[in-house]
Amino acid sequence: MNRDEAILRELNLYPQWVRRAAAPVAAEPAVVAPIAVAELDPVASRAEQPAPVAEPGVSTADNCADLGWAELKARVQSCTACALRAGCKQTVFGVGDEQADWLFVGEGPGADEDERGEPFVGQAGQLLDNMLMAIRLKRGKSVYITNVVKCRPPGNRAPEAAEIRQCLPYLQRQIQLVRPKVIVALGKTAALALLGVDATLGSLRGKVHDCQGTPLIITYHPAYLLRTPADKAKAWQDLCLAVSTMNGLVD
Ligand code: SF4
């Protein structure tokens, strides 16, 4: 068994996952428009619970377009722009190489992430690490990982559209600072937030989208893949598309 097969077997994917040729690229218009999320990702979402009772503070996500890393991190840390901050232990900014070629964007922190202040550290994080390993990437090594919202939604529910709208300027500034070559959206919430459209995950997969001038690939959230391992094969196709997109870029 070669190294690739060993990795895929560890992921419980071998021989199910097979590297395939990339799907045709379908360029889409560049859009990072004000988000209009009418429907949040039902598959990457957890149990719906009521939002915490909190007094939203002043929106400190405004006017962050000129901030450097340190100022942006401090701004997020002190942000009370939406009610999510009142229900979480700490903000979860992002982790990894700040000049990474790859940017992976999830939905929002879960319980483990809220505890440790780092995105994707629970079971879903382990799967993400294995997915990265399968395409010869490693957390922190030319990879940056963050979420659409920086505070844990109560009960691990999906973030609401208003919460995403409040938090999105932070993610947009992170993208500007990292300047990744390829962005991978993990789940529908991240995909819709980055594209500013409303669509099904299925309709968005298999294409190369444009996000602030950067190729954007859309795949499933690892938490969903843990619950639906049969779709790991599709996620593998998405990762292969991301790799072929990266490989096809001209510096
Ligand atoms: Fe601020 Fe985002 Fe946290 Fe809401 S989720 S309080 S906008 S950092």
Shape: globular
For the termini, the CA-CA separation is 35 Å
N-to-C SSE series?
HHEEHHEHEHHEEHH
Please work out how many helical segments DSSP would assign: 9
**What proportion strand?**
5-15%
Helical/strand content category: alpha/beta
Instruction: Describe the oligomeric state of these chains in a short phrase.
Output: single chain
Rg estimate, integer Å: 17 Å
Ligands and ions found: iron/sulfur cluster
Contiguous low-pLDDT stretches (5 residues minimum) are 18-58
Helix content: 25-40%
Largest β sheet strand count, sense and barrel closure? 6 strands, mixed
Give the strand order of the largest sheet, numbering strands 1, 2, ... along the chain.
1-3-2-4-6-5
Count the beta strands.
6
Average pLDDT number: 84
